[in-house]
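Re: the 406-residue chain
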Amino acid sequence: MINTGTELLLGDVLNTHLRFVAREIFPLGLRIERQLSVPDGAAIGEALAESMAFDVVFVTGGLGPTTDDVTREAIAALFGLEFEENVEIANGIRHRLTSRGWKLTDRILRQALVPKGATILPNHYGTAPGLYFPKNPATASPHIFALPGPPRELHPMFVESVLPILRDIASDKAPHEFRTYRIAGMGESLVEEAVGAQILAIPGIELGYCARPGEVDLRLVGDPESIARADAILQSVLKDSIFSLAKEELEHVVVRMLTDRRETIATAESCTGGLLAHRLTNVPGASKVFPGGYVVYANEVKASALGLDPALIRKHGAVSKEIATAMAEAARTRAETTHALATTGIAGPTGGSEKKPVGTVYIALASDCASTLVRHFNFASDRETFKQMASQAALNLLREQLLARD
């Protein structure tokens, strides 16, 4: 895949094409093996020349009317193709512009010039058509798809015009299955230690990991039989550490579990500053299980909003097992919920001590049918990552409690 556009390399525009195309072609047994981002100009032709050994090449961008749109020219120059005007495209451009009251210029009509031998890929959302150049043994060229840069034009064109061609090209490919296991409460190295060797011993399996704050995504690629063998190992070894196979976030899982049980949750947050409540309320239907929460950053507000005894805070410190416990129990009582989660910690970069270094956090879970649980962690990191990891650990503590009661 060759993504063109100087704006991509300046950081002005986020390149989302790889993600979209890779997902669309995977069910066909095809995968992106190399991706290049190149500026407008001669680099497009150079990238094409370097990609002749591949079976399929996608080029995005550079099909428009301006002087920096040179993808057509780069392809024509590489294979010695002449241009011819496509009357149907030219008439379509004229109709599109005149119906909108826009001025028609010769530059815009450049988009109707098509290299000989190209198949037109209709563009129903813009003026620049896509182009398909079939594999040519005479020139040792691959299948080349030249696609418009704007996602709103590329996405429908890809689905409607490119995928049918790719299905024929890949008709002899064996489709592979792609599965992601989202794992909480374990680091990347621990997950690999637990299952890595066993999974890699399965013929025809590809294993990968992606570490995120507070979780690990384990990726499997392979034929259905190999995936089934790997799945049996993962379910046996990792068990409840796997919180999703559907690429859903942990908060979605927790809200669904609470909804199914007709239970509710409140929050009392200090160091996470409302992130727990934010994540829960991002889930549609959260109002059924989350009546509200408390953000009690200052000690005075811990006392006034939750009724915590200032003497207790002075004795143990705001960041302590005792205060986390008191926060969770007070929040559950005041909100009249089944459960309540509390977080208190030191996000840093200052404020730590020898006994309570930066990254220290206490997370408490109060429930109406069990003793209050408190967990101590150290998530030494930047403030944003610290908050994400603390909120992830809190949600996972609740998830584990709910599973234990089943």
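The two ends are 48 Å apart (CA to CA).
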